[in-house]
Amino acid sequence: MNISVIGVGYVGLVTGACLSEFGINALCMDIDEEKINKLKKGIIPIYEPDLAAIVHKNSGDKLHFTTSMEEAVAFADVIFIAVDTPTREDGTSDLTHVFEVARNIALYMNEYKIIVNKSTVPVFTGQKVREEIKAILAKEGKNFEFDVVSNPEFLQEGSAVKNFICPDRIVIGSSNDKALEAMKKVYYIQLLQGVPLVATNIETAEMIKYASNAFLATKVSFINEMANMCERCNADVLTVARAMGLDDRIGPRFLQPGPGYGGSCFPKDTKALVGIGKKIRYIPKIVKSVIEVNRLQRLLAYSKIKKAMKKLDNKTVTVLGLSFKPETDDLRESPAIDIIEKILESNARVKVYDPKSMSNMKTNYPLLPIAYCEDAYSACAGSDCIVLVTDWKEFKSLDFEKLKEIVQTPVFVDLRNVYEPEEIRSFGFRYEGMGRK
Ligand code: UDX
């Protein structure tokens, strides 16, 4: 089987590389020549564990790269659309790239094709893509059959390869058995391993993606609210979360309080769901509150720093971790950015260290007056407050004896509850966690 992936971003690259690992011939296409040239040389544009290894292993054999749309369409039976769908000012998704790709597929179509929406797109986009392709084919006087399928991804950054190879479920939204059977061939190995398949119509598949992400975001905002309440009533949110999670109906995951969710999906998808709600005249009130709680949680993280330091003016704050979560160099919607901006507004100096995201930070925020450091300890030297924002593994075993010696003022704000409060206080630090005293 041959597949093409249009759009070699995070999702597209993982999809193409992992399918090639499963023995499928995969051609990845992007209009960004520099990116494609680098990939041809084995240079991977993002940090994602295990991804480089499978790209290197399969490149030139089962995995190929191109900038030619014509080649990508001619090559494949199944064409994945994995282009970006940025958020517009009003919260809705900008689908310009999706429709542009759909039109190009129609222009180059030479036989029956299955067009798969992998990008997260609002309900009814599958239908609109079908209409768009149909209109171009009619205009061009072509009479090819084609099918449109919705196949949302549930990849978590930092474990995307594992998630693709062994997902919790595969969702396929299609309007006929022919397309469904072809998609089952694409995911033959995962299905053989017993991964559950949810085969449904296109609109349901589109909705599953938004409902899943909005629900997970709800869990995060919910536990953040509980943490804020726990702090005011001498309760420990970690024990509350553990006990909640032991109830099978609730489950233990996504109940860690923190500075609010970030990343490329939760912020965007929750806003898009409200945007869809406006179009279909039903506003999801819970999701709207989830977004608001998340916004406030970032401000609350900053207030904690302010409270712990009393005065920020002319002080030095160390920020450990920049990415929105560990094991990724992705800074999109990262709480660290908002927190740093607020600290700078308070006229304090900021020293930062992150194991993987500092070069992205320098490129994306070149004007932020922050000092980049070589490791956690050089970032903490002379500091008046250490703020742990992203729970990278290497921040989980800091040497507090050593830190005590090198900081200016021993204050530790642990936005991820990595440490036990009493233990850190025993080193002479003032300690502030999330939802615990
Ligand atoms: C998410 C979904 O999990 C994935 O299925 C979807 O396809 C893309 O979006 P990702 O954005 O990679 O994946 O990150 P995820 O691990 O889900 O975390 C999202 C955010 O929630 C992060 O900012 C994380 O720090 C935060 N989070 C998560 C918490 O604050 N507490 C938790 O308990 C879990």
Structure commentary:
The chain has 437 residues and is an alpha/beta fold. It has two domains: 2-200, NAD(P)-binding Rossmann-like Domain (Rossmann fold), CATH 3.40.50; 297-432, 3-Layer(aba) Sandwich (Rossmann fold), CATH 3.40.50.720. Helices cover 46% and strands 14% of the residues. It contains 18 helices and 14 strands. It has helices at residues 10-21, 33-40, 51-58, 69-75, 96-108, 125-140, 160-165, 177-186, 188-192, 202-231, 237-245, 266-279, 285-309, 335-345, 358-364, 376-380, 400-406, 421-426, and strands at 2-6, 25-29, 63-66, 78-81, 113-117, 146-150, 170-173, 197-200, 316-320, 349-353, 371-372, 385-388, 411-414, 430-432. The chain has a six-stranded parallel β-sheet, sandwiched between helices. The chain has a six-stranded parallel β-sheet with strand order 11-10-9-12-13-14. A two-stranded parallel ribbon has the order 7-8. Helix 1 links the parallel strand 1 (2-6) and strand 2 (25-29). Helix 1 packs across helix 3 (51-58), helix 5 (96-108) runs parallel beside helix 6 and helix 10 runs parallel beside helix 13 (285-309). The termini are far apart. The structure holds uridine-5'-diphosphate-xylopyranose. Uridine-5'-diphosphate-xylopyranose binds next to helix 10.
